[in-house]
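Page 42, continued from yesterday. The earlier attempt failed because a stray header line got pasted into the input along with the sequence. Redoing it now with the clean sequence only.
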Amino acid sequence: MTYLEITLKIQEKNRPAAAEVYKKYKHPFLTTIAGAKSKELLVRDEDVQVLHGFDSAASAKNYLNSPLFNQDVVGALKPLLDAAPDVRIYQVA
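This time it went through. Structure tokens are written below.
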């Protein structure tokens, strides 16, 4: 299992809109992205994280280059971001 963690700096007032983006693209992510296994929204006081589960690191990297991510998700989130996202890929040991 591989996880793609994207940490987003989003002001509290913009978090409901960010949650709507998450909801809108969760199903397309799970049904159209090769190797996609799960997607969770994690909210903390200091930021918001989206944790994506994949079957491999290659699948996670492919998603980062997909139109769904670059055009749809990033396009919808860009006006809500206070800083560039922190993107990390982890593999389960």
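Notes: Helices lie at 15-32, 57-64, 67-77.
Reminder to self: strip header lines before submitting.
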